[in-house]
Amino acid sequence: MAEVTIEQLADDMFELVSKAAGQKKLKAGDLTKAMKEKYGDVPRADTKAAIKSLIDSGRCVYGYFGGSSIELPRVEGSANQ
Amino acid sequence: MADDLKTPLLDELEKGPWPSFVTDIKTLADKSEMAKDLLRQLEKSYEDKRGYWKHGGLVGVMGYGGGVIGRYSALPEEFPGVSHFHTVRVNQPSGWFYTSDALREIIDIWDEHGSGLYNMHGSTGDMVLLGTRTEELEPTFRALTEKGWDLGGSGSDLRTPSNCVGPARCENACFDTMEMAYKITHRYQDELHRPMFNYKYKIKMSGCPNDCTAAIARSDMALIGIWKDDIKVDQAEFAKYLDDGFNVQEFVVDKCPTGCIAVEGKQINIDNSNCVKCMHCINRMPHALSVGDEKGFAINLGAKAPIVEGALFASVIVPFMSIEDYKDEDSYEEFHDLLERIWEFWDEHGTSRERIGEFIERVSLATFLEGIGVEPSPKQVKAPRDNPYIFYEEYYAEEGEG
Ligand code: HEM
Ligand code: HEM
Ligand code: SF4
Ligand code: SF4
Q: Could you tell me the pTM of the whole model?
């Protein structure tokens, strides 16, 4: 299995979230599973750290609609539409 | 009270014998536009027979995926005071012990940043701060954390662990619920604030089978105190109950669910091998009877309310576990290992919005036990309490006859 950095995981996850925006709400589990499909057995701690970096950097935010999801930041109030 | 506040339908709710939330909210209506519009919108809901609240999917504080629940009015022009009405969950201290200073801290913060309305406490256990605007969320969070408070859980995360007062003031406590809730909360900060599960995961701790937190009915993981050896008996105190004219036969012996109590003269004899630890005899005669010495807790999984699928009660997965020193983080290894195996297996094979109880039902108990590495055993009783309250037919029948 090729070693994959946390930055690379975060970038890949960000790409998935961007592509899914407006179509499908991805959860932490979906992102983790996608990374496992792509890279084999990625340690759980690494996928967790990648998600953490996406959120803490502000590239993604948590959303909630019938379960928590990871989304692109949006203008507030859009949930009100 | 505000002159322009006319709520004839809500006023009906003040007429009964019980304290009314309408009366409570009215006391704030003069001071707070939020409280006033909350009542006005609710009155309109009662008139129109429909709700006017909307979810808000994307409010929160930086870095946290839980703790704030977004709510908006569907009629913001008519009720500007509740155009935003977000809920903030604040992680309660173990056992809900506060000093009055601590409560004043919260009140000052919420008077400044929110509606001034609370629900103490939510069924999650948190202090629930009801109603604020989006732009007040970060300032609220900052003010709370500066004083050492933190948000609780919401969404698909570990919900704020909650516990009964246990050894802090209850002689029935079979484990240190206070310390354990604290330890779990601190160890799993990421799981609490960064939703990473298929759905919510609630852990509640009750020190004995009286289950004052109703963990068996309300939590994905219910830790319920239990003892392995015999009920302790003080025969002299028992004799006093008889001497005082307490009807032991009717109120204790006949009510023991397994019929394992016998009285000979002024002696009580319990066949402990048949006792199911229902607590009834101990509750009725606390001076004479008490829980045993070999104490710990049972781990039960799978309770949930009827949202998405039907309601479930928890079932025993590990009949007995004990922790050597509740104050020592290292003593928790066996428990943490198990909890993490459970999460991992559920993560891997569960589906979106599937609670642990539904997951176990779908994959079967046998598969689940294998997946988490726990041996099957006849002690894994399904739904050991099928109702946390007493609603049995015979109780009604007895009343009717009496
Ligand atoms: C769109 C509108 C709303 C929806 C869909 C909604 C839904 C819910 C749900 C599903 C829960 C249970 C959460 C859990 O699983 O722990 C809950 C809890 C609660 N809600 Fe709401 N709610 C709404 C509006 C409100 C409003 C306007 C108020 C107060 C004015 C409110 C007060 C509460 C309180 C106090 C709890 C208990 C929290 C706890 O147990 O910790 N909700 N709500
Ligand atoms: C006839 C009317 C009502 C009945 C029979 C009723 C019954 C109940 C019951 C049985 C519970 C669960 C208590 C538990 O945790 O064991 C509950 C919780 C709750 N109810 Fe009501 N309720 C009524 C009206 C209302 C109204 C009008 C409101 C608010 C506007 C309200 C707000 C709540 C909240 C916030 C909780 C959660 C409290 C908590 O989690 O500690 N209820 N109610
Ligand atoms: S659950 Fe048991 S130990 Fe906890 S407060 Fe209730 S009676 Fe006491
Ligand atoms: S705890 Fe319950 S089952 Fe056990 S002896 Fe007392 S009444 Fe009977």
A: 0.83
